[in-house]
Amino acid sequence: MLKRIPNPALILFLFVLLTGNFLQAQQRFPKPEFDSGYVQPDPTTPEPRAMALEYFDVLVLLAVLSLASWLAVKKRSRRGLLWLSVFSLIYFGFYRDGCICSIGAIQNVALSIFDPGYAISITALLFFVLPLLFALFFGRTFCAAACPLGVIQDLIVINPVSIPSWIRKTLGFIPVIYLALAVLFAATGSDFIICRYDPFVGIFRMDGPFLMIFLGVTFLLLGMFYARPYCRVFCPYGVLLGWMSKFSKWHLSITPSECIKCKLCEGSCPFDAIEIPVEKSYRSPEVSRKNLKKFILYIALIPVLTVLGGWIGSKSHVFMSRVHPDVYLAELMISQPELRADEENLDIQAFLESGDTFEQLVDQAGVIREKFRKGGIVMGGFIGLALGISLMNQVVFRRREDYEPHKGDCFSCGRCMDYCPVDR
């Protein structure tokens, strides 16, 4: 008989109910008083922390990753992973306001590589690197118990549904595109789109634009039936974790000994991450010859898709470069010169007050657009290459006799272990 685990949704509800006042931001100094009736606005971003506290965050992350890996691989405890994930939600989510996070650190790393004037902090670099290192050895234990974005979705899974494989694989390619765009926009200094469109940061901070909070609530409601929608359909960091996890040596296993093929684990996984045994028909001569032809075709398509993607990316650089404020402003002032005298346009007035000339702005916009052209080639080539490899993997079948977790897709949540009736 399986042990009963507390309802995660109830845990989350009680946590918010009991700690609502505690999670309110505290100021170090009292607010100044003004006779003019000025009201100090509430901050929308967390206040900077002392370096010692930032290093403490890294130590907490390291401890959580270590404990999660031990619970998943050695202890095989779903209950332990569950309570550890609740701690991570409280600390990294609500207490630390969802910042800094490993997902957003992608942009800091990209900007530091392509902008010599930007120096990434050691804490941001460690938040980016540590989960990848643990994924390389132990699987995606970061997703299981350390990532607040994943945990808040995982705790509300009620009645997950399974969708066809072709839909999952199609949706699963969206994070690759999102990752490429996020790196391009960060590398050109245009925007940090991962942070800007984080659907849960408004919930963690209990403040934010209505649209983003609405989006976060929508993800949570959808997540009751389609488990972890953001993680599976959008998370760019999940792409990197999945790639690293495929090479993990000590990954979570479903059964502690010989698999009896009861199929209970297949139905227990809300993420469709259980690989079933490969049937003998897949290894028949007819199927093997057919798959070999497809394999050769997809291998030949990889360079074609890479070049085609790079060409599309280069042709899209004019459109994409408008994300950068300097390019947008230059195009606006060229197309509508009368706006230069518009005192109500804050962007134009701020530029005029800066002391730069219009010619300097146009030159700067040209430099940025050239960066987008070169970056668009790399971005498009990367997407084309990833698409070609993904197609090739559809016809590669590894011999598999037992039910096993897919190392790239498995979040190491441990649900399947509890459903396995095999004793140690």
Polypeptide structure, described:
The chain is mainly α and 424 residues long. It folds into 2 domains: 8-26 and 48-277 and 403-419, no CATH class; 281-393, no CATH class. It contains 21 helices and 2 strands. The protein has helices spanning 8-19, 51-75, 78-95, 105-114, 122-138, 141-145, 148-154, 165-171, 174-187, 193-196, 201-205, 210-223, 229-233, 236-245, 264-268, 285-315, 317-321, 325-335, 346-354, 358-393, 415-419, and strands at residues 274-275, 404-405. A two-stranded antiparallel ribbon has the order 1-2. The longest helix has 36 residues, at 358-393.
What is this structure's SSE topology?
Blueprint: H1 8-19, H2 51-75, H3 78-95, H4 105-114, H5 122-138, H6 141-145, H7 148-154, H8 165-171, H9 174-187, H10 193-196, H11 201-205, H12 210-223, H13 229-233, H14 236-245, H15 264-268, E1 274-275, H16 285-315, H17 317-321, H18 325-335, H19 346-354, H20 358-393, E2 404-405, H21 415-419
Antiparallel strand pairs: 1-2
